[in-house]
Design goal:
Radius of gyration: 16 Å
Number of helices: 7
Distance between the termini: 46 Å
Strand content: under 5%
Order of helices and strands: HHHHHHH
Length: 109
């Protein structure tokens, strides 16, 4: 399937209905909106906010690039991709990324 030819609204619908197999209400809880708002998110031409995009990506481990542009895999496969998303979303410097990576390696003690 060529996801690039889909709108972001179609990708939200496809992800919810065909991939995750969840209701509009369940997706709405993740995004902090009601069923009606999710219905609008799935309609072509409606704006999908950055907040909703990030909520969907974070909750379901969905690739930001796939959801926004239709490129790459639907799901994030490894931690490195997650860190890259954090780097981009929070405009982190390389030193900050290395700190996060080292922090994640620490044991609970």
């Amino acid at each position: 399937m060529n996801y690039k030819n889909m709108t972001i609204n179609e990708r939200v619908y496809y992800l919810r209905k065909k991939v995750l197999k969840i209701t509009q209400g369940e997706l709405g809880k993740v995004c902090g909106v009601g069923d009606t708002a999710v219905s609008k998110l799935e309609k072509d031409g409606s704006k999908v906010t950055e907040r909703n995009i990030k909520a969907i990506c974070n909750e379901f481990n969905v690739s930001y690039n796939w959801l926004v542009d239709g490129t790459g895999d639907i799901f994030i496969e490894d931690d490195e991709s997650t860190i890259e998303i954090l780097k981009r979303d929070y405009n982190l410097r390389d030193v900050e990324v290395r700190l996060i990576e080292e922090f994640l390696k620490l044991d609970e003690n």
